[in-house]
Write a structure and sequence with these properties.
- By secondary structure, this protein is mostly helical.
- About 50% of the residues lie in helices and about 5% in strands.
- It is built from 3 helices and 2 strands; from the N terminus they run ββααα.
- It has a two-stranded antiparallel sheet.
- β1 and β2 form a beta hairpin.
- It is flat and about 55 Å long.
- The protein starts with 15 loop residues before the first strand and ends in a 21-residue tail after the last helix.
- About 5% of the residues are buried.
Amino acid sequence: MADKYLVPQRLDDPELIGFWTIDEFAGLLIPFTWGILAQHIFIGIALAFAAWFVLRKAKSRHAGSALMHAAYWYLPGAFLGLKATPPSHCRLLAG
């Protein structure tokens, strides 16, 4: 009864869905959904946990910054919504 309100222990903790962060959950959800729709549930589960493991290792090694850099470099400019950076397709800048 004394713990009526949930007070976070650290301010920088990410939001969780179950045991996973939002991006890890999306990495689990996409292959799992494919497995259900393709009627290959066990392959979907295996791919989901493989994707989760790879994403977790990629995030821990570079602290997520490498994924952001890759998203900036390979995805369309509106994907990240960055306004102060030049578009990634401009390889040579005059200056």
